[in-house]
Amino acid sequence: MDWLEPLSQTYPARALILSPTLYLLVNAAHIMAIGVLFGAILSLDLRILGLARMLPLAPTAVYLSRVAATGLGLAMLTGLGLFSVRPGEYAANPAFLAKLALIALGLINILAVHLTPAWRATVRGAEPTKVLRVGAAMSILIWGGAIIAGRWIGFI
């Protein structure tokens, strides 16, 4: 993975490498962003699966989708910073590759769900269909798996 090594020589990567405090802050921001992402996704998926029925699904779905998107953007930005410190090492790490694969699968699941007529009907007030409930269950498993794979990175 020598072609990735120039990334570790960029100014942001060098700053992270040379400043343990900056690295710590970016790492903490990454963890917080993942918490925002997964917290919103889990809350929405559980609501779609029938929990917390006292919450109206339509506005909850719109709001939590936006919160999750914000968390995803921040997690990707901070994750890129962390990756830039040791790109070759991460790119060769099976846990990191599993995490990326699960994130890609999670994004495909989001697109598949959000592009269905069932999703559009749900955000207009309809009850979630079986397709949405299956998508929600898959989402919990996929994003939970991505978090587990992310934690696994440091153990390989």
From TrEMBL:
Keywords: Membrane, Transmembrane, Transmembrane helix
InterPro entries: DUF6644 (IPR046586)
Residues annotated as domain DUF6644: 27-155
Superkingdom field: Bacteria
Transmembrane segments: 20-42, 63-84, 96-119, 131-153
Protein name: DUF6644 domain-containing protein
Membrane keyword on record: yes
